[in-house]
Amino acid sequence: MTAPDSPGRLPLSRPDRLSPEQRALYEEITGGPRAAGPRLFDLTDAHGHLNGPFNAMLTSPRLGGALQALGSAIRFGTHLPPRVRETAILVVATVWDSAFERYAHEAVGGAAGLTEDELRTLREGADPGFTDAFERAAWSAARTFAARPDGLDDAWYTAARAALGEAALFELSTLVGYYATLALQLRLFDVPAPTAPVLDKEPQP
């Protein structure tokens, strides 16, 4: 059952009614690295409620804090090129049919250099036709991680390690696992996506 006055199954946590632990997590989310660049999607609504997966993190601040810290490290602390990172996230969004991940990361992906045709083919689950060897290998690996984890045999690993290297495989598999976790929680709590991305505004919140 949908909670009253809430887009989804969870009540929206009001910023003025948070516990000290929740307040600390709220400030980490809205004041951390996600707030340092151009606002490509809204972290909060007009009343300050957290959007997307972040509202659910407040239900368990200790675990939610660890989860958001992992997400921040994946977004801002890996060596994956931005196009590769956003491609992998959009692969997860397609496999899980996650409207919020698609809404947020098509905007970020476009800013990272993914073309409209590439975004469309990723949305459709089709081959985006990357000509860069690293990008193509990363896209293929992300699809395997997200949709066919039973395909990780020795032959697959040898080829993927040759194309990407061990560090990129570790970072890419962690990214896919993290965004699959968010997609699961978004589906569990029936969290919708806003109707359109927010582009070319001041830094977030």
Architecture (CATH level 2) name of the largest domain: Up-down Bundle
Shape: globular
How many beta-strand segments? 0
- Give the termini separation: 29 Å
The tally of domains stands at: 2
Give me the secondary-structure category: mainly alpha
**Rg from Cα:** 17 Å
β-strand amount: under 5%
The percentage helix is 55-70%
What does this structure look like?
There is one protein chain. With 205 residues, the protein is mainly α. 58% of the residues lie in helices and 0% in strands. Helix 4 (82-96) runs parallel beside helix 6 (116-124) and helix 4 (82-96) packs parallel to helix 7. It is globular and about 55 Å long.
What key phrases describe this protein's structure?
205 residues, mainly alpha, AhpD-like, 2 domains, globular, disordered C terminus
Describe the secondary-structure layout.
Blueprint lengths: L19 H12 L22 H4 L3 H16 L5 H15 L2 H13 L4 H9 L8 H15 L6 H11 L1 H23 L17
Helix pairs in contact: 1-3, 3-9, 4-5, 4-6, 4-7, 4-9, 7-9
